[in-house]
């Protein structure tokens, strides 16, 4: 089963509770936290996440594009995050951080920027519940999908399979009706979609359509995902 996680970065920030309800059929709600240091953009922090978690039954998938995630990640779990993603490029002690996230009851995830290879982190994979491959440079929504990330997605799926891990493989950046099938065929099974969902006339239908396309591509590719 493919998981579709709409990104509220593309939602109307003045109507976050309503925007969350508009995609209640989604699997998770993807929340980008940016600090204007790790990436050149500033979004929202712990208080907004806490309010959002109370306004929706959809679990929150937090993506920390921030410096010092080792310090801040636990606070986002306390605010209501069900999954917390930190960047490999920013974490001082990724194994310790992943274990702390899990110990606090959330899913532990690590993200890689487009230029960061997966291979140096192969031994860390068992410590994670999800790996996020960025398919654009992190920092802004609405960017064009980077096709050159597809081989990296394939290599990551091969590593996951080789180690027999139940590890979700997420992609984020430029995911739309025209790109999601390529991502699924390459091995992704969790898809962050921003403007493709919130830019649609019917966001809930957009979620269903994206999931259908991803699952069809996964079946055609001959590899399966179990959530």
TrEMBL record:
PROSITE patterns recorded: RIBUL_P_3_EPIMER_1 (PS01085), RIBUL_P_3_EPIMER_2 (PS01086)
The keyword Protein biosynthesis is assigned to this record: no
EC number(s) on file: 5.1.3.1
Residues that, per the record, bind substrate: 7, 63, 139-142, 172-174, 194-195
UniProt keyword list: Carbohydrate metabolism, Isomerase, Metal-binding
The protein's enzyme class: isomerase
Sites where the protein binds a divalent metal cation: 30, 32, 63, 172
Catalytic activity: D-ribulose 5-phosphate = D-xylulose 5-phosphate
InterPro entries named in the record: Aldolase_TIM, Ribul_P_3_epim, Ribul_P_3_epim-like, RibuloseP-bd_barrel
Family per record: Belongs to the ribulose-phosphate 3-epimerase family.
Protein name: Ribulose-phosphate 3-epimerase
Gene name of this polypeptide: rpe
